[in-house]
Task: inverse folding
């Protein structure tokens, strides 16, 4: 399966999971943690929207191999940042 189809299917599968998680989170009245971490929530939201826009824009002119390489670099940098601490 090519990377574009796999990415789309991944989003399709994760959406119901996120909705159920959001529902359970709200039932546990755990939104107080989000109020404490408001800055983190804002940056994660901005990053998610920017990533979705950038990824959608790249679909037309970046090859599947190029997207795979870009994802690998991004994941490596994220892991490095996590384990650096």
Result:
């Amino acid at each position: 399966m090519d990377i574009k189809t796999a990415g789309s299917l991944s989003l399709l599968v994760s959406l119901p999971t996120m909705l159920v998680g959001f529902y359970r989170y709200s039932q546990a009245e755990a939104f107080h943690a989000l109020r404490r971490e408001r800055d983190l929530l804002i940056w994660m939201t901005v990053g998610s929207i920017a990533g979705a826009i950038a990824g959608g824009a790249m679909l037309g002119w970046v090859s599947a191999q190029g997207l795979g390489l870009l994802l690998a670099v991004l994941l490596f940098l994220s892991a490095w940042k996590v384990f650096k601490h």
Remarks:
- The chain has a mean pLDDT of 85.
